[in-house]
Amino acid sequence: MMTTNRATAPKTRLQTASQAVGAVFLLVGILGFIPGITSNYDSLGFAGHGSEALLLGIFQVSVLHNIVHLLFGAAGILMARTHSQARNFLLYGGIIYLVLWLYGLLIGHDTPANFVPVNSADNWLHLVLGLGMIALAVLLSRNTATRR
After folding, report:
1. Where are the alpha helices (DSSP H) in 1-148?
2. Less packed terminus of the chain by CB within 10 Å, N or C?
3. pTM attached to this predicted model
């Protein structure tokens, strides 16, 4: 098992997956701040269910929601430095997304409890992300072969 912090050292498939997932989250966080890619951009609020901005016209976002994506993405890239940290990012990040999925199912979308905010499309995406991240953590942690 390779667990070095050197940037030039070969990475495991798990580390590469963590880096890729982190990069996607960074991209999504940035796209959430771009008018046109985010429809109803003028209604983008800091937080709360009142933000009517929709990333790709589908996923409800706010400034807080975009910041969370940016921070989550940075965590994925930084934690890809070691095999064990990459595994933790994917595993526990996946669990967090499953909790967000349950949270989104339990709260009313038009209530103050929906402070992130989320809509039905976000809920289903959170389910897929949670299961996918956990699957990557479990399946790729078995194989510690490095990639060149």
Report:
1. 13-31, 63-79, 83-106, 120-141
2. C
3. 0.84
CA atoms of 79 and 7, how far apart (whole Å) = 12
Do you know the residue count of the chain?
A: 148
| Residue written as token pair 């495991």 | 12
Q: How far apart are CA 24 and CA 129, in angstroms?
A: 11
- The secondary structure of residue 122, as a DSSP letter, is H
Scan for tokens 């989250």, then name that residue.
25
Query: Is-contact 86 17, C-beta < 8 A?
Result: yes
- CA–CA separation, 46 and 146 (whole Å): 42
Give the pLDDT of the chain (148 residues) as one tens digit per residue: 454 555 567 889 999 999 999 999 999 999 999 999 999 998 888 877 778 889 999 998 999 999 999 999 999 999 999 999 999 999 999 999 999 999 988 888 778 887 778 888 999 999 999 999 999 999 998 865 555 5
Q: Give residue for tokens 């979308």.
A: 109
Tokens in use for 38?
């985010």
